[in-house]
Amino acid sequence: MTEETPGFDEKPDVPSGATDDAEPQAAASSSEAGAAPAGDASAQIAGLTAQLDQSRKALDERTADLQRLQAEFQNYRRRVERDRITVKEIAVANLLTELLPVLDDIGRAREHGELLGGFKSVAESLETVAAKMGLQQFGKEGEPFDPTIHEALMHSYAPDVTETTCVAILQPGYRIGERTIRPARVAVAEPQPGAQAAKDESEAGEEKDNSSEEG
């Protein structure tokens, strides 16, 4: 006969209710494990959203700064270009102002028929260069007197003018663009005192006579 080893068929003592309690605990642990990742994901999304908002705000601020800098740079370029043009105009005006007495001598020589030969060629070349640099001559007999561009050196009365008029150009004026570098020096004539009243009376008498003849 084979002897049986005592204790092999015996089951270890398990406390009552141990198995039943283990299953709910395992289920609860599984539920907690599933809930924790969901909460972490929501927190991560909220954090990323806040970072995105901050990044957008920073981008808007940098964009506004860049636009402001671009506007300031454009204003600076325009100001520099305007100053450069102004400096150039002043330099040209100063140079041409120094040449005006020479141009006056050329004009007088031309009036007296002395602009001949090589001197004529040089004079005409100088006038051409001055014109290319923007110099313009002005002042004509018969034009109305304008104190902003004319300088009256002589004054008289004349019965045949109806307003203060330039009757002689003593020295022509010169300008560069809209800038006058020397006014035209002129002799002016004003209407004869009382001439306008006499003219008005004469015209009134003529109209009266015409009306009488028509009647």
> Unreliable segments (pLDDT under 50, ≥5 consecutive)?
1-5
Tally of helical segments: 3
Helix content: 55-70%
Order of helices and strands: HHEEEEEEH
Sheet with most strands: 3 strands, antiparallel
Q: Structural class of the secondary elements?
A: alpha+beta
Cα distance spanning the termini? 179 Å
Strand residue percentage: 15-25%
Radius of gyration, CA atoms, in whole angstroms: 52 Å
Give me the side-by-side strand order of the main sheet. Answer: 1-4-5
- Return the average pLDDT rounded to an integer: 81
Query: What would the principal axes of the Cα set say about the shape?
Result: elongated
Q: Give the beta-strand count.
A: 6
What's this model, at a glance?
The protein has 215 residues and is of the alpha+beta class. It has three helices and six strands. Helices cover 60% and strands 17% of the residues.
What keywords describe this structure?
alpha+beta; single chain; 6 strands; 215 residues
Description:
- The protein has about 220 residues and is an alpha+beta fold.
- Helix content is about 60%, strand content about 15%.
- The chain has three helices and six strands.
- It has helices at about 20-110, 115-130, 195-215, and strands spanning about 135-140, 150-160, 165-170, 175, 180, 185-190.
- The strands form two sheets. A three-stranded antiparallel sheet has the order 1-4-5. Strands 2-6-3 form a three-stranded mixed sheet, with no helix packed on it.
- It is elongated and about 110 Å long.
- The chain starts with 17 loop residues before the first helix and ends with a helix.
